[in-house]
Amino acid sequence: MKFKLLGQFEIVVTEDRSFFLSRSKVSQLIGLLLVQNGETVSVDTLIEELWGENAPRSALTTLQTYIYHARKIFAGMPGGEHVLVTRPAGYVIQVPDDAIDVAVFERLVQRARRLLDGDRPEEAMGCLDEARALWRGPVLVGMMIGSVLEAHLTYINELRFAATHLHIEASQRLGRHQEIIPQLRLLVAENPLNESLHAQLIKALDKCGRRAEALQAYRNLWRILDAELGVEPAPELQLLQHELLSRGSVVHGRS
Prior knowledge:
By secondary structure, the protein is mainly alpha-helical.
């Protein structure tokens, strides 16, 4: 069995048999147990996820009904009867980590980080490309999401953002500055207040000999920060702009 959460919620039973879970509280329950694979999730936590502050008096009985239906989903799968286990304090799903795309993604990103730390950018790039290929859309797109699952999804999305940064860093170490400019422009547009991304874009443009565009990228950041927050770019970015301007002045003086 394989569980795909990075996109529409899908369970792959065999190579030629899979199905998508519909939007329901049973799917919501399974999703939460999967992102905490191997960990017992308490009854109180499950109730909080499913109903928040509006839990009905029948919450415990209804939860047990959802557990029953979740077990029915697994019952027709090879070894499925051992997937969802009752514990004294709650419930746990136990499957190999490599059966869940989120766990595989996390492992690949961690490995890529270690490879970069070991100055092996080419291998790190391979891991990151493999990790990014696992994404088929927003995490558990279309599913019902409560506060507990939302916290896990925030972590997963932050991890995806970290993977993007690592990919950019690996590309820069390999001298592939031109290749990452379109990606950086898109990321800057999606995250206009992230100064780190703006800095990466400015540096990449400069490395490609596009100094005027690099300076324009700095001016765009300055306008955004001034309009949104009333602040100037961080000192490191101001120094980067100064270096770009100074280099241009030196060249002009020699001509």
